Every structure is written in structure tokens, then in C-alpha cells.
Amino acid sequence: MKTASFITMGCAKNEVDSAHMADRLAGAGYGVIDDPAQADVVIVNTCSFIQAATEESLEAILEAAGLENVSEGGAHLIVSGCMPARYEGDLEAELPEVSRFLPCADEENIVSVVDELLGIERIGDARRIVAAPAFGSSTSAYVKISDG
């Protein structure tokens, strides 16, 4: 089973977005693990609301790129969230170690992106894969009202 791991920066909105992407990946048959050093795909969900958050997200990206599994080419690095949405194409030139940038608006495509990076062919529309939420039996949940 191929695996993915998330590093989530910033606000509660990013926590929810990471959980939704993790649910989609789990629903598509991927294992979602805590240790990015053991994953086939490392996803850094970034924040760039203020300069300090952008710098912190950039540090997390560089740390993830330096993981042995990523730096030696055994794992792919995806950067999602606010930074790709805010800085668009500028990041590609500055961070060639990143396999794919996924802005907030495209996060529903996480399964297709991971499938493509790992060379997995899937029949049907991967965007329709949605697993039962992994939020547990809590009686409350975050409600997303905006991006960025």
C-alpha cells in the first residue's frame, strides 16, 4: 500500500483541509501515516496569511525536501494550501525539489495528483472518491467558510 503523510501549517482551516485530503486519499486506498520520513508522498499544507506564516511554511517545505526519502527520490513532495494559491508560478522556480503545487481551490484533486505522481492508473473520476470523515464521534466540527 502506498502511503502519504501531512505536515500542516497555520490555522484550523488548514487542519480541516488536510483532514479532507487525508480522507480522500484513504478512500482511494492510500495509507495515511504520521511519519513523513516513511511516506511515499509528503504533503505540506501551507499558510501564507502573514509574513511569519509564510516563512514558517517555507521552513517546513525545506525540511520536508531534506528528508532522506524525498531527497533521494523515493518520495514525492506536494505543497498545498495558501502559498501555491498566493504565489502561483513563482514557487516552481524557487523550489524545484517540489513535485507538485496544489492551491486551495484544487485540493479536491489530491487523489488524481498523487495517482499521477506514483504512476497509478484509476478507472473513473478520482475527485468523486470521498471516505467517511475521520473526525471520530465528536458532536462538533469546523465549518469552512472561505479560502485564503
Largest sheet: 5 strands, parallel
Provide the CATH architecture: 3-Layer(aba) Sandwich
Overall pLDDT confidence: 87
Strand order of the largest sheet: 2-1-3-4-5
CATH topology: Rossmann fold
Walk me through this protein's architecture.
The structure is a single chain. It is globular and about 40 Å long. The protein is of the alpha/beta class. Helices cover 37% and strands 17% of the residues.
SSE order and pairing:
Layout: E1 3-8, H1 12-27, E2 31-33, E3 41-46, H2 51-65, H3 68-71, E4 76-81, H4 82-87, H5 90-94, E5 100-103, H6 110-118
Parallel strand pairs: 1-2, 1-3, 3-4, 4-5
Keywords:
Rossmann fold, 6 helices, alpha/beta, 148 residues
In a few lines, what is going on in this structure?
The chain is α/β, with parallel strands linked by helices. The protein is built from six helices and five strands; from the N terminus they run E-H-E-E-H-H-E-H-H-E-H.
